[in-house]
Design brief:
Blueprint: E1 6-8, H1 9-16, H2 21-40, E2 43-44, E3 53-56, E4 64-67, E5 74-75, H3 106-122, H4 132-141, H5 152-170
Antiparallel strand pairs: 1-3, 2-5, 3-4
Helix pairs in contact: 2-3
Amino acid sequence: MGLVDGVDLRGYLHERGRLPTADAVELVGQVLSALTVVHKAGVVHRDVKPANILIDTTGPGPARAMLTDFGIARLTQTPSMTRLSTTIGTPMYMAPELAEHTPAGPAADIYGAGVVLYELLAGQSPFVASNTISMIRAHAFDAPPPIDGIDARRHGSSMRSRRAGVRRSFGSDLFR
């Protein structure tokens, strides 16, 4: 295993603030490339978040993102070793379906990467909540605030479609 001379993406964001769109997309694209390899091997990370992405800025050229901390990863074709009453992952980046203890699949990692991208572009998380249940509900039912400089009208229909799909999957009484 090599040593990454740099910081995690959380520290990188803290040092630089909101990232330019091209930089944010490049870093998250590198994370998605890593997830492609991991998913082809039958592994789901289950905790994609800035603290688990190391940024190497020592080489020539742009920063390189490396996905780390597979401590709660699991093979997609094996039963989870976690109790059903335990939520695994970080709620701020967790796909809503995982709160219903649906087996984690690659889509959950992609969702987490999308939340990371939002945070890099907006300079803040899409949702703020006082507790885990409220955070998961926000991911399931609320639209994130628009990001300055990003045309929300262009992407609004996909967000409405996603929320409608979540409502069909969970019903309107999720976590009540």
